[in-house]
Each structure stands twice: as C-alpha cells, then as structure tokens.
Amino acid sequence: MRTSIRSAAVAATAVSLALLVTACGGGEKDDAKDTGKTAAPSATASASTTAAAPPAKALSAAELDKLVVEQADLPGHQVQKAKPADLVTSDAVSTDKPSCKPIADGMSFLSAGTPAASAHRKAIEVPKTDGASASPEDALGALAAPVTSVTLGSYEGQGAQEAFASLKTAGTDCAGGFTLIGGGEKTKITKVAPETVAAGDEALAWTITTDMDGEPFVTKLVVFRAGNTLASFSTLSFGGEVKTLPKAVIDAQAAKLG
C-alpha cells in the first residue's frame, strides 16, 4: 500500500518528476529541438588576436546523439531513448523564486539556460537477482530501482559557463527550498543540499527533498560542464528515496565527452 501511495504522489508532481510520468504530455521532441547553428568568427579579427581561442561552437543534435550514453556504455542498466511524452519545454517549468529555475529545469529533463541543441536518455539500474523466479518482493524492488534522466545540452559562446554559473547561484539561493510549478501542479521542494562530485571541467551535485503529502521524497541532481556542453543527471526512485549519486552513469557520460 505504501508503494502505491508513493507512486501516486510521484505522478502528482508532473513536471518535476517528468522522467517517469509520461502522462505529463510531450513538449519538445528528443534531439530535434534545434539545429545547432555555429557561431562564425569575426571577419575583422586582427592578426594579433588570431591566437586567442575562437568562440565556442555548439554541437548539433545529431552530434550530441552520438555522445550521449547508450546501452553499451552502461552494464547493469537499461538505457532508453527518451520519448516525446517524457519531455517538456522550458517555458512549461517555473518557480516561485526565479533564481531556482535552473535546478527546476535539471529536475525536469531540461538543460539550464538556452542550449542550441540537446539529447536525452533514461538509464534504469537493473536490480541484481540470484537467477530465481522473481518474487513479489523482487518486483517491488525493481520498481524502486534508481532511474536517471541524462540530458546533454550544447551552447554557443560562453553559454555553458553562464548556465553553470546560474546553477551555482541556484544551489545557494534555493538551499532552503522553493516551489516548482508545472503541468498544472505546484510541487514543494523543501531542501536542496550540496553533495561532492568530480567530473568534467566543473561539477555540482545536490540531494533534493520534496514534500509529498507530508512525507519526504528524496532525489539527486548532478550537472557537470565539459567545454561548451552541460551534462545533467536527475535520479529518482518510486521507492521514494535515492541514497547515492548515479556514479556509473556520470562516469560513463564523462568518458564519452572526453
């Protein structure tokens, strides 16, 4: 009974837990949001500035799709391409504190800021069994297995750095909680607690506690920057609590981004 209550509570959060709630409706289509236009270097650049690094060029959706984690990269997981119904558009997600929106986006299968292109996957941890037939307890354990939404966003110029900076600000401003609004629902986030993580050029992680009818629902959010690409990981479980960061998924994605 407790499991069914929690499942209903998860469904009620709509956008904030959009990864597993496909009924929240399709927004953007996976990997087809943008065409990844590149920024042309200035034609008037002088010889003295040619040695400087050129403006970062965003990868296309097709290029990102080759870099996002796949089944072969994650033993012990089931990796799926996100369906249109799993995704929402950024304007469908808002918060009562504007500075908290980057965290709300990360929880909602979105990249912070304004990426030029994106790619999405779902990585479901496969519970270990002894090979015997699944018991009802095993079935409940499978439902409680951690599921991680993986989002890659590629940005023009300094867009990735700016988006990452907004996440830093959000982690500080929103530590005491905020309200996420989306899908016609308001979801109360009660705590955003920092975690330690190392990946890419810079990385952030949090344990996020949501109020579900008076009971805590604990998830994890991780974001790292690799050049002008942000990789975001939002992990939840129908069991109501995720105890550890999705290290295997993070490491596999960091390896593919180089």
Nutshell version of this structure?
The chain is of the alpha+beta class and 258 residues long.
Biggest beta sheet summary: 9 strands, antiparallel
Any idea what the shape is?
globular
Question: What integer is the average pLDDT?
Answer: 81
Which series of helices and strands comes N to C? HHEEHEHEHEEEEEH
Query: In which order are the strands of the major sheet placed?
Result: 1-3-4-9-8-7-6-5-2
Rg over C-alpha atoms, rounded to the nearest angstrom: 19 Å
Number of helices: 6
Helix content: 10-25%
How far apart are the first and last residues' alpha carbons, in Å?
45 Å
Strand-pairing-aware structural class: alpha+beta
Please state roughly what percent of the residues sit in beta strands, choosing from under 5%, 5-15%, 15-25%, 25-35%, 35-45% or over 45%.
25-35%
Number of strands: 9
Given as residue ranges, the uncertain stretches (5+ residues, pLDDT < 50) are: 1-51
